[in-house]
Amino acid sequence: MTETLRGSTPQSEFTLTTTLDDEIECACEGCHDDVDDQLKLLLGCDARGMVADYGTVGFCSLECARQFVSAGPYQSLEEDLIVYTQQPVVATVVHNGEVIEATLGFDVKEAIEAAAEIVADLVDDVELSPDDLSIQTEEL
Fold it and tell me: Which residue, 14, 16, 79, 82, is most buried by CB atoms nearer than 10 A?
């Protein structure tokens, strides 16, 4: 699904593509890079006072995700609704002090669960020790 949105300024019009579309690209305004599978976020919307899930968007990097969140909420130019992110959380997987993976969540629990799956995969596939890995969280 694609929709034209406007951010906090009239000049910030762009087309948002959700994960329902086969041609998904980074949701950040002006960025058309491929999406990192771990950096997806469920958006909400307010349609004349009724709150609902809007759709899931993806980002190519944490920097783009931060920029998208800070520029919102967004107004649809095609329908009478406001699209927003609430307060998403980023969970990073750290190995020997270096961030090696990151994931987004609607809340802390969701972000940590996704990061825990990454840790499990790293321990199974790359044979890293779980003692060498940690998960850190912060608001996006």
Answer: 16
